[in-house]
Predict the 3D structure of the following.
Amino acid sequence: MSQARRSVSLLGATGNIGVQTLDVLRVERERFELVSVAGGDQLSELAAIVREFDVKNVAVKSERHRDELVDLLDGGVEVLVGDEGLTELSSSADVVVNAVLGFAGLPVTLAALAAGKRLALANKESLIAAAPLVARVRDAKGAELLPIDSEHCAIHQCLASAPAHPGYPDVKRLLLTASGGPFRGWNDEQLKGASKEDALRHPTWSMGQKITVDSSTLMNKGLEVLEASALFGIEVDRVDVVVHPQSIVHSMVEYVDGSVLAQLSRPDMRLPIAYCLGLPERLAHHFGELDFTRALELTFEPADLVAFPAVPLAYEAARRGGAAPAWLSAANEVAVEAFLADRINWFDVIPVVASAMDHYVADPLDSLSALYENDALARQWAHDSLAR
Ligand code: NAD
Ligand code: MG
């Protein structure tokens, strides 16, 4: 390729999505240049990435992390710290991949769009919590928001034939597919005995721990309903969830004439990552390639919304609007952390979220400071419910 290489900033480089993004960059060295990375606690992994890709700009969480990282490196690398570091690196490249975990990814989403960059977004939590604030920076000159989340990347592709009128009037509904997680078909008695090991055994995807737990409660699908609505400007009443245990159909768009468009591949996140990096070009690779010379069974069934109340809880948060989605996501982060730390049972994760949501007071979410206040309040109520 004779064009200049596209520069990439990969924030959350040591995580599950980060590592898979590096895989794509390794096979596409002529197209992309990794210029900056950020990570959390895995500093030796971060140092190895910096050396392999000869990265010059890095951000870490704290001064202590910076000192430790500097000791692992040979020099010649600028190491920034905290939200300011993430913000600065979010305007340092043509494409910014937000692969940070949870609400901590917020500075990346806001700064990349405000700086007019392409944001390749894995970090759904930031968009869900800050949707009204993201909407304001999304129109910045050059800004582009592309979803790495496989369902939303599928919908992005299925919407390509829709006239780009606001709100997509030709679209009847978006159909988000869900594997159903490890507890699909379990009854209440079984769910009460669900262990951490059970929850972390996802049937079709290998992902970070938080999203794997979210997939077991179906909160991931609830969050994805909110994510879809914010991304595509389609109200949640036109977003439905369908269980598809094989995770081959990554989501669908039903048009008003009854046509349903779907995107299929083997479950491999490198495909949506490569799509977001390469657009408008499609990169030639074998990630996710399907083998149609063998029998392939695709089944669909409705989601069990009684056994998995996280999905209705998310629709409720969408209807309340304002800061309610931020509360849902923040309370869920607290509950999942407590579950992963063996402080609560699987069966109590969603009740903790629901109990925090009971304290939500309507807030239109018109500033960043309001968002931080709401996030802190939701976490406080979730902690309060844990203590009980
Ligand atoms: P992970 O836990 O494996 O990785 C998270 C990354 O964020 C790590 O590199 C960690 O060091 C970094 N990080 C955490 N806090 C940080 C901070 N304050 N500053 C800088 N870096 C920080 O998680 P993951 O599974 O890779 O998921 C990342 C995001 O992508 C999540 O929002 C998740 O919902 C989303 N996502 C993941 C998948 C998947 O297949 N893993 C699919 C769709 C969406
Ligand atoms: Mg997904």
Q: What stands out?
A: The two ends are 61 Å apart (CA to CA).
